[in-house]
């Protein structure tokens, strides 16, 4: 039996490195605290999940749906060339899905963003404007 979402516990590192934008049907949509790339996370509100296959088939389907929604909104809000989606979990075991807007000439193009330089915090106004565009696109 899957525990109710009200008992959901977010890994402290995800809490530290991202900000909750909204709760979708299954996932929390969170903005990464790194302005170099428009980068969001989807975190299924289920405890004890570290792999996609740990989720129920219904939750897997819902995750796919929410991933497509968030990715499309991110592309619309940024005008980026490519959306990267990945679930690594080597450092944070709690299942979470990265959705990152990429464009030619960005700080890590064409390589991966992980381990590239130091995170640059969002400027308050830029963060507010980006968040507004993203949420409107959703």
Automatic annotation (TrEMBL):
Record carries keyword Hydrolase: yes
The keyword Hydrolase appears for this protein: yes
Gene3D superfamilies linked to this entry: HIT-like
Keywords: Hydrolase
InterPro entries in the record: HIT-like, HIT-like_sf, HIT_Hint
Annotated HIT domain residues: 40-109
Pfam short name (any one): HIT
Molecular-function annotations in GO: hydrolase activity
PROSITE patterns documented for this protein: HIT_2
Protein name listed in UniProt: Diadenosine tetraphosphate hydrolase
